[in-house]
Design goal:
The complex is a heterodimer.
Chain A (H helix, E strand, L loop, with lengths): L3 E2 L11 E3 L4 E3 L6 E2 L32 E5 L6 E5 L2 E5 L6 E4 L11 E2 L6 H13 L6 H6 L1 E34 L3 E25 L6 H6 L9 E2 L9 E3 L5 H21 L7 E30 L2 E8 L5 E2 L6 H28 L1
Parallel strand pairs in A: 9-14, 10-13
Antiparallel strand pairs in A: 1-8, 2-3, 3-4, 5-6, 7-8, 7-13, 9-12, 10-11, 10-14, 14-15, 15-16
Chain B lengths: L1 H23 L5 E3 L6 H18 L2 E7 L7 H12 L5 E7 L4 E7 L8 H13 L3 H21 L20 H5 L5 H21 L21 E18 L3 H4 L1
Parallel strand pairs in B: 1-2, 2-3
Antiparallel strand pairs in B: 3-4
Helix pairs in contact in B: 2-5, 4-5
Chain lengths: ~350, ~250
């Protein structure tokens, strides 16, 4: 069991929330605003956790694994969450609560990027995202309903390092010429080698197994110039998870991206060839450090035809991603129509050329 | 009384002589300044030309001469045409036997029947024949064919129209056939392939969730330093391909 923290308004005692417009804490009851730094990290009026025991059947062995139970400071209601939940809301009174133990000691994030965009912006972005896509089933546009929208601080590991690497490429130069009777093609092959150093700053790797990695990487990049030191007050009004993927477990993904960056960056220095093919790369990492950060992401869930669709919006930059179903019949019809049109134009051009 | 009867007879004779002279007048269609044809040949050919004129309203004259005198070829041909017919629709082909040259003059709507190609064909038919008579006869036969087909709107010579301005030059085999219909399904197939690629390219934008390929966006600005670089030549090969011949292109 952990203790939970509520950010209370000093004026009226109501639960305050982080206001993205003002970038300050705001009491929704008396509209009083506070600086983040004005709020204490740990207050003395914390209510101790309360054990809630079932009066009926007891939890079986292993049934409560991965589950934590908290008591709401305001109403005393029971808040059941998984072990990685760091911030949520009370299902009874709606008060925003932060599981203090999830972000204390060694688990305390180094950095946080506060939300810059609110729920309304996320809804509008979803609407725009869907409306600008082609070949979306009409029933999806008509029946698709937003089931859930939540602002989540997603745990990320940020890797900074100097990469020392080398890459090999197979390159080709093609030269053609002709005389009266023949056309000649000379192909020259080269082995190209490049080595060097590249510095990387804050490569993010999703530290939560609950969040799909492809979804989190799709909303990148975040603007680290707006990052601030972690303060639990930023979590007020949002959900947050603590990491359940360690930095060590996240390193292979960071290394994979670094390796590909070395290949791609060194490739740009291989010039003067007609074709360049990557043959592999080696790398070592020096001066590597990592940080623990929370990134703001709006998650939107919709349901259509019994299938769930998850969309994500970068809570800082507004970049919106999410796969939308495609109407295969419409695609086939459009392909045939366009294809027939192009075919007719090609045939018409052949006639014109013939006539001219 | 006798004087009156005599006067009536004289008047009747004068009128009859006018009628006779009018009915005895025959149009000349073949003008033989060079004396290459006999009178019977000329009569036969005139009869042929007269038949054409009666049937189609177009006069076809043929003139054989030895030189054009002091006038130009154009003046000679147009002048001769005007001298021998009042029909505004007609053609004259002049053969200058001395200079081995041919001139033509086409008047009125005769150009609807006799294109340049048609006139060339008629001259060829005349020129390749061994006798003058045979040549002119062949020429009139062709003229009848062109007049008939032009008159009825039909076609001759492998489907080619002979109207003036429409068949100035013999067309090539490709021009006659146009683009083969076999290219239509080929064009459609190419179109469908291109259409499929375009539409699927648009539809693929509905998928926006994917893993990042690299971390290039997190590269520290100006941090890349190349410390080693080598471009080693391995080998080369030369391929020679024969150029397609011009005929093969067609």
């Amino acid at each position: 069991m952990s203790t939970i923290l509520e950010q209370k308004c000093p004026c009226c005692g109501g639960a305050v929330e982080f206001d993205v417009g003002a970038q300050r804490l705001k009491c929704p009851f008396c509209d009083t605003e506070f600086d983040i730094t004005a709020m204490p990290e740990d207050t003395s009026n914390q209510v101790e956790q309360i054990n809630w025991n079932s009066q009926g059947a007891q939890w079986g062995a292993g049934e409560t694994d991965g589950m934590s139970v908290y008591a709401c400071n305001s109403c005393g209601g029971e808040i059941v969450a998984d072990q990685t939940t760091g911030a949520t809301s009370c299902p009874y009174c709606g008060n925003q609560v932060v599981m203090k133990g999830q972000f204390s000691g060694a688990l305390k994030p180094d950095l946080v990027i506060p939300f810059k965009l609110d729920k309304k912006a996320a809804k509008e972005a979803l609407k725009k995202h869907i409306s600008t896509k082609k070949f979306v089933p009409k029933s999806f546009l008509a029946d698709n309903r937003l089931e859930e929208i939540k602002g989540v601080y997603v745990p990320h590991w940020l890797f900074t390092c100097d990469a020392i690497g080398n890459a090999n490429y197979k390159a080709k130069k093609v030269k053609t010429w002709s005389d009266e009777n023949y056309e000649y093609t000379e192909t020259s092959y080269f082995d190209v080698y490049r080595s060097g150093n590249i510095g990387f700053d804050n490569i993010p790797v999703d530290g939560s197994t609950k969040m799909p990695d492809d979804l989190m990487e799709s909303v990148e990049p975040f603007d680290l110039s707006q990052v601030v030191d972690f303060n639990t007050a930023y979590l007020a009004g949002y959900l947050a998870d603590k990491y359940d993927v360690t930095a060590e477990e996240s390193m292979p993904r960071a290394n994979e991206r670094i390796r590909q960056s070395i290949i791609d960056s060194f490739r740009e220095t291989v010039k003067g060839y007609d074709e360049v093919e990557n043959q592999g790369a080696n790398m070592n990492v020096a001066n590597g450090i990592y940080k623990y950060a929370l990134y703001p992401v709006w998650l939107l869930n919709t349901k259509w035809n019994g299938e769930n669709f998850t969309f994500a919006m970068n809570g800082q930059t507004g970049k919106f991603v999410g796969n939308i179903p495609t109407d295969k019949k419409a695609v086939t019809k459009a392909s045939l129509l366009l294809g027939a049109g192009i075919g007719a134009v090609i045939y018409g051009i052949m006639w014109l050329i013939e006539l001219l | 009384m006798i004087k009156k009867i005599f006067a009536v007879i004289i008047a009747a004779l004068i009128c009859a002589s006018f009628v006779f002279s009018a009915s005895a007048y025959t149009q000349e269609y073949v003008i033989d300044y060079a004396d290459k044809l006999s009178s019977s040949e000329i009569e036969e050919l005139d009869a042929l030309a007269e038949k054409l004129e009666a049937a189609y309203g177009v006069t076809v004259l043929f003139c054989i001469t030895e030189g054009t005198g002091d006038v130009t070829a154009d003046e000679f041909s147009s002048g001769t045409y005007g001298d021998y017919t009042d029909n505004e629709n007609g053609i004259i082909i002049v053969h200058d036997d001395w200079n081995k040259a041919y001139f033509t003059f086409i008047s009125g709507n005769a150009d609807k029947y006799f294109s340049d190609a048609a006139v060339d064909s008629m001259i060829d038919a005349y020129d390749t024949n061994e006798s003058y008579y045979g040549g002119i006869y062949a020429c009139y036969e062709l003229a009848e064919e062109y007049l008939e087909n032009g008159y009825s709107g039909g076609y001759v010579n492998d489907g080619e129209p002979v109207y003036a301005g429409e068949a100035d030059e013999p067309k090539t085999e490709n021009e006659k056939d146009g683009v083969s219909i076999i290219w239509l399904p080929v064009s459609l197939l190419i179109g469908l392939l291109v259409g499929f690629l375009i539409i699927n390219g648009i539809a693929s934008k509905n998928k926006s969730v994917k893993m990042q390929e690299n971390a290039t966006v997190y590269t520290r600005p100006g941090s890349m330093v190349i410390t080693g670089s080598a471009d080693n030549f391995l080998y080369n090969n030369v391929e020679r391909r024969e150029k397609p011949k011009q005929a093969e292109k067609k």
